[in-house]
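Quick one, tokens below:
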């Protein structure tokens, strides 16, 4: 059935997903608008973009898209009416943050104005979900420099979600096909990430990941711990972290009934998990897991945030300032993030939710 032939009642059954449009100097508004017009999204979700009208117009102009932008009230969500107007143009519904319009934003340039606009959209998106207007939140990328210039009290989405919701354990999971990756540490310099590793930190993450996987319908999840050093240190010949921290963490976790395996050399563990030997991998630091996921499928990877009272998904890429405003950004990851938010958002509190 074509989208045009659908009834309002059919569209009404689809969940509303709030989509914060990210830093307007990056590709966020472009990929958000493209996702909101995607048939893949519209067959499963009612997207509600959160951002400023002038940035959405700029994104449409950059991509050569003719759309009708319909502003909604923050307390009403989207109506189930047709996704196209009488002229056949796509209808994109959005909510705009309150307050004065942000100052001019130049594509590719980190500024306080861009950071303030991105922060306002993100925080309104969180409020829409927490107030029940939307079922879940999908986010386009932020720029840490712009956020800092704007005086935001957090550095990224994850720390912002923790502050805005009061959650004490916010976790990131990447999903790329059948591969799932949890991150023990994320936005830390590599030296600092290694220095903060501890038995307690790894056991806590393994326990939380196990609970998250169970809630997603995976019974008795098998979790692999990626090693830090080459060949998992070869019995201490190439580093001591495996013997001092990682192996004791595995032993303690298994003593608590958590099916944690390893440490397994990082050059093999992600392949083994992707082949189905493990349900998820614990990545010790940011790039260890990101490289694996993005090499497997750069545009197909979706980031899930757990530990909140709602589901948040995100693209797996940054603001791509070097191509912002040129209308060439690939929207596949944004489409996947919005669809995933719609698919799992309403089931998030249900322990029988199936991640497929």
């Amino acid at each position: 059935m074509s989208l045009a032939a659908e009834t309002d009642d059919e569209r009404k059954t689809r969940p509303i997903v709030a989509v914060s449009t990210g830093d307007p100097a990056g590709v966020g508004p472009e990929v958000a608008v493209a996702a909101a017009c995607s048939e893949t999204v519209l067959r499963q979700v009612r997207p509600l973009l959160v951002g400023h009208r002038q940035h959405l117009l700029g994104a449409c102009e950059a991509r050569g898209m003719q759309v009708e932008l319909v502003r909604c009230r923050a307390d009403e969500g989207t109506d189930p009416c047709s996704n196209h107007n009488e002229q056949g143009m796509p209808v994109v519904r959005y909510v705009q943050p309150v307050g004065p319009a942000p100052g001019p934003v130049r594509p590719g340039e980190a500024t306080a104005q861009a950071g303030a606009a991105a922060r306002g959209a993100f925080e309104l998106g969180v409020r829409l979900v927490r107030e029940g207007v939307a079922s879940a939140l999908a986010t386009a990328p932020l720029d840490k420099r712009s956020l800092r210039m704007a005086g935001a009290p957090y550095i990224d989405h994850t720390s912002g979600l923790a502050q805005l919701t009061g959650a004490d354990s916010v976790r990131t999971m990447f999903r790329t096909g059948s591969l799932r990756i949890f991150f023990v540490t994320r936005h830390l310099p590599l030296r600092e990430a290694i220095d903060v590793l501890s038995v307690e930190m790894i056991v806590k993450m393994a326990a939380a990941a196990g609970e998250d996987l169970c809630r997603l319908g995976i019974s008795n999840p098998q979790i692999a711990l990626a090693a830090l050093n080459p060949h998992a240190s070869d019995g201490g010949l190439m580093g001591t972290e495996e013997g001092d921290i990682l192996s004791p963490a595995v032993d303690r976790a298994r003593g608590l009934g958590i099916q944690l395996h390893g440490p397994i050399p990082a050059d093999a563990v992600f392949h083994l998990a992707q082949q189905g030997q493990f349900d998820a991998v614990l990545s010790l630091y940011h790039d260890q897991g990101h490289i694996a996921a993005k090499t497997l499928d750069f545009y197909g990877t979706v980031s899930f945030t757990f530990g909140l009272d709602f589901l948040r998904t995100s693209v797996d890429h940054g603001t791509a300032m070097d191509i912002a405003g040129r209308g060439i950004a690939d929207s596949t990851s944004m489409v996947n993030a919005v669809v995933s938010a719609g698919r799992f958002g309403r089931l998030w509190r249900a322990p029988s939710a199936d991640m497929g």
